[in-house]
Design goal:
With 316 residues, the chain is an alpha+beta fold. The chain contains 8 helices and 16 strands.
Length: 316
Amino acid sequence: MTDIQIRKVTAHIGAEVTGVDIARPLDAGTVTALRGALNEHKALVFDVVNLDDAGQQAFARHFGGLTTAHPTVGAVAGTPNVLPVDSEGGRAANNWHTDVTFVLNPPQATTLRSITVPPYGGETLISSSAAAYRNLPEPLRRLADTLWAEHTNDYDYAVADEAIDEAEAARRARFTSIKYRTVHPVVRVHPLTGERGLFIGGFAQRIVGLSQGESRKVLDLLQAYITRPENVLRWRWSPNQLVLFDNRITQHYAVDNYDGLPRRLRRVTVAGDVPVGIDGRSSHSIEGDASHYTSVVEQAADVLKAEAAGDPVAAA
């Protein structure tokens, strides 16, 4: 195992990792140490990573099988597991969200690799939804524990404008070309740490049993705890960096503050499990087949096999 150093960036989320070359194959001890650091810090930053698309995928596979790039958005040519995050391909995702929560088993982890960064701006904000849950006053926490929310992609990250150009309209049409609706617990139990976190974000559009207007008020109230500055890592990108964050217990936001200058990242996500609430009940799908994106059956089989073999990292 390499001599890994972990340096906290904020009290509640984020750490910089040195002493490991993630462009090389990692031994089991190193992967276990990184998983432990991810469980604790929620987001890990690696500097000067010297990765290409293949190397990023190889690194992500240390944490589990990969999803394809996205359920509806196209991948980088020739690399079906890599999503281009390119400022020239559409508006920035300047809305708080957890990746792909509109499917039954969203990714467990996300890797973002910087290729081109603007000379200013373009930060990524990552928030700990575990810290947000701990911040809730007791009456509000008891309420959140009982709630379930419907997540859908029939609405983009971007706030709808009264007028959008033709390219933006086409992008939104592609994003919603398959409609997904899934019900998840508002408070999700992390399968490895047992931590509770608020599992909402931009795709959560309605609280089950409440009207649209009532839902919006409740979701906005809970979301305000997630976006408290004390719970947020604000990462200013440099070229050739990689950020790994736990998609089960974080939200993130791409800040659109760079005047339309080039900003290019690559995203690779690790397949995840079906969320479970504090009462032990699992999420359920209402609409949309995401089997081309991530297979629930195969993921569940892989987890059970790994658990039977006593391999907690693979089971993740």
